[in-house]
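Entry for adenosine-5'-triphosphate complex. Fields follow.
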Amino acid sequence: MRPTIGIVGGGQLAWMMAPAAARLGLPLVLLADPDDPAALLVRDVIDGRPDAEGLRRLASRCDVLTVEHELVDVDTMEELAAEGHAVRPSAATLRVANDKIRQRELLAAHGVPVAPWTVATDLAGVEAFAGEHGWPLVLKRPRGGYDGRGVWVVDDPSSAQAVVDEVAGEDLLVEPKLPIETELAVLVARRPGGEMAVYPAVETVQEDAMCREVVLPAPVSEQLTARAESIGRRVAEAIGSVGMLAVELFVVDGEVLLNELAARPHNAGHVTIEGSVTSQFENHLRAVADLPLGSTARRGPCAVMVNVVGEASDPRDRLAEALDVDDVAVHLYGKSFRPGRKLGHVTVTDADVDRARARARLAAARLVEGPPS
Ligand SMILES: Nc1ncnc2c1ncn2[C@@H]1O[C@H](COP(=O)(O)OP(=O)(O)OP(=O)(O)O)[C@@H](O)[C@H]1O
Ligand SMILES: [Mg+2]
C-alpha cells in the first residue's frame, strides 16, 4: 500500500514531514498557501484554505487526510469521514485538540490529573475563582492560541478586566498561576488500530509562555518520567488519536498535571529528528498511513533543541556564523523574518547535556544577532 497523504497546512510541521515522506516514497499533497515553507519541498500544492471547499479539494486528491494544525473546518472533516475518506486524526479528536476547556472536561473524566480551573465570561467569574484560589491567575483563550498568544497572567481585578475586555465576552479558561517546577511533554504515535509508540518524556523550557528549548530525555526522576508517559498513553486512548499526539505537562509539587495537547507533530518533538531513531514527523506519516511505527528509542545519550525566534536579523543571513559551531543541526523554515516569530531551530546531540545545551544556545544566538559586520 502506498497511500497519498494530504496535509492541511504548509508551515514548518509540514515542511519537516516532507523529507520523511520522500524517504519512504509516500506521495504528499498540501492544502496551503503557495508561499508557505512546505510548498518549497512539495510539488503538489492546492492553493486554498482549510474550509469546506479547500478540504473537499484536498480529499479528492489524496487517500488519507491529515493536519499540521487544528484550525480546520472540523464539520467538513466529519462529513468527509462519513463519506468514506480516511481522516486522521478524526474530527472528534480535533474537537478536543482545538479546545482547552474540552480537554480538561474529557481528560479529568478519564483520570488525568488537571489543575483547578473554571470558565468565566466576565470579571465576576474571574473574581469568584480568585476568592477560592487567590491571585495571580492565568487566563487563557480556549481556542486558537499558540506560542503564548492567548495566555495572560493577571495579578489583580484591573488586569483581569483588561483581558475580559480584550476577548469581548468570549469564554476564558481560568487557572491559578501554578508553581511549576518543570514542564514536560510526551509524544505518542498511534495507529488506527490502537498500536502506540511512546517517546521518552522531554523537558520543555518556556520563556514568556513560548517554548524556547527542549531536552531529550527530560532530566527528571524515573518516577516522573514513567508518570508522564503513562498519562500520554491514557490521553491518546481517551481521545482516540491517530498520528502524533503531544501532551504538554506541568510538574507541580512533585505531581504531573495536564497542560494541553496537540494532535499532530509538535515543537517539543523537533528534537526527535536527530535525537531519536525515528522522528515524530516520520512516525506521524507512518501512523496516519497505517504502517508499522518506528522505534522511539534515543540515538544517543541526549539531545538539546533551541528554537530560533526572530530578533534583530533574518537568520538566513547568519548561517555561516551558526554553522561555525561544532556539530549543530540547523533547520531554517524559510519563513519571512519577523521579531518574535519561530523561524527555525537548532539541535545538538552530545554525551553531555550541558555541552549540548551550550552549543545549541550559541548557534541559535548567532542566528538571531544583528546583521553581520
Ligand atoms: N496555570 C498556569 N500557571 C503557570 N504557568 C502557566 C499556566 N498555564 C500556562 N502557563 C505557562 O504558559 C505556557 C503556555 O501555555 P499554553 O500551553 O496553555 O499556551 P499555548 O500558547 O497554547 O502554548 P503553545 O506555545 O504550546 O502553543 C505554558 O507552557 C506555561 O509555561
Ligand atoms: Mg502550550
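NOTE: The chain has three domains: 5-87, 116-176, 180-368.
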